[in-house]
Amino acid sequence: MTDVFKLLKADHDRHRKLLAALDDMRGDSPERRELFEAFRIEVSAHANAEEQSLYAVMLGKPDLQKEGRHSVAEHKEIDDFLEELQEADMATPEWDATFRKMKHRYEHHIDEEEEDIFPAAEDALSRACEHEMGEVFAKRKVAEKAEIGAES
User: Fold this and answer.
1) CB–CB of 58/67 below 8 Å?
2) Domain count, the chain
3) Whole domain around residue 41: which residue ranges?
4) 0.85 surpassed by pTM
5) Are 95 and 89 in contact (CB under 8 A)?
6) What is the pLDDT of residue 1?
7) Does residue 60 sit in helix, strand or coil?
């Protein structure tokens, strides 16, 4: 499957499940740390690969630039939240509050992508382009996960 939108949506569905599982946990535990780290690596790799595939193409198309810039800015916002959470004490109520803010922003972001951004891009881009972007996304995500995981 190389259709970029199917790949992205499948990732979003996994991210929603990880977010829900994290939201059900409280305090600091090895399980919560492991799940958060898995989520952080997954979402960071996804965003980087998405920017190198879909958003790289969208930014090159005048009719799609605004949407592309908006989504890339939201990726930076989520990345800032993840960095803050990574550095904070997971056992505190502040960590939980920041996590819930990040969760809300990320769910808003992926809902907006699925409801607005992806349909606009699908209308403007060819099926061949969608498949090419899917191949780029899949390859880049693997490379990004390895790179981000090595930095941890």
Assistant:
1) yes
2) 1
3) 4-151
4) yes
5) yes
6) 52
7) coil
